[in-house]
Sequence to fold (433 residues):
Amino acid sequence: MRFDLLTIFPQLLDSPLNEGIIKRARASEALQIETHNIRDFALDKHACTDDRPFGGGEGMVMKPEPLIAALQAVHKKTPGGHVVFMTPQGRPYNQKLAAELARRPHLVIICGRYEGVDARVEEYIDDEVSIGDYVLTGGELPAMVLIDSITRLLPGVLGCDDSAAGDSFSRGLLKHPQYTRPRVFAGQTVPEVLISGDHGAIAKWRLAQSVNRTRVRRPDLLEKAAFSEDELRGLKADGTDTKGLRHRQKQKIRLDIALVHYPVSNKNNEIIGSAITNLDLHDIARASATYGVDTYYVITPYADQQTLAREIMAHWQSGHGAAYNPDRQEAFRRVEVLGSLAELYGAVTKKWHGRPLVLATSAAKQTADLSYHKVRQRLAAGERMLVLFGTGWGLAPEAVEQVDAFLPPLGGEGYNHLAVRSAAAIILDRLLG
Ligand code: ADE
Fold:
């Protein structure tokens, strides 16, 4: 993820951006941050970035020219950033908005100062965000709040995928109490259940504590939280007050998969386009129907290959095959042939009203960014995802670049050359089975 920050006080940001988890994420390249001094874009010799308000009144207003010149320079160097202006008049910031912004690959954050910013910059801004109903001297600290909270949601940034999932607010509840050594401190002992080693009992205890804490401290949150049937039963059985707790509706699974025939590598690491196979079309369509994949995309740029795939599908959808085997007709209903990865990203972004998280596996990359368990949980919570399967010797580097996170490679000991349709079936079972 990339952040570009526009400020007149770049030094103010130095220390928070160069410590702890953010420093580590920047070193790992999960995170790129660049600060830009708006003053460098001022037009006059005093590098003036503010002026008195028309109509009179207190304080100074940030001038539009240096700010917009700085913004244009950022867009020119790295196009496509989503421009966020930090202002007390913006959308209220919370964990949900953090998760929404974390899905964008590039944010350009404008830190305002003084009494405000010339209103004519508004048309250059995509989003306005406030970190609370109070006024700070500028947008730099709010920008740090955004970067910090978004960074910890990026795949692979926190040591364990589950760290962010267990945060306060991540599921609309406050976090349960935490303990570490010593077991007894000033006469207070750690609750027995936490040393029992019984993970089921620990999870239940933590949920009950979260519910109780939220009920006392933030009853407003509890009204919006939702619980599964199992959770409500467990809470009730343990004597937790479940009055007013809402039952969670089953989320629609928003998972697409794509079988990529181009660009992939061959065994000599050359970039090639591979051929469509009848077996992959059929078997992955059947696995997709079995597990509830929304669309199975088949990606090939070659017109003759597209025709071949469509002819096979037509045979089973409306030709003789449809009457002969209606189940196969049902499986092929969710298959779509597209010409490129760009078309694929366009189609899924349009369908889900936002870009899904793009996942892949790679035999070459042995370290995973997200566990199957974690992805399963996020799918169940309604997140949009797309899993890419490379044919040949796997996705070419230019396709890998667009992947947001890798799942663990499949395999046991040694030999791990699975057919792509086997890998697809196994992964679908792990994520949705
Ligand atoms: N700039 C000044 N106060 C702010 C706030 N509360 N949120 C975002 N930006 C600000």
Observations:
- The mean pLDDT is 92.
- The two ends are 31 Å apart (CA to CA).
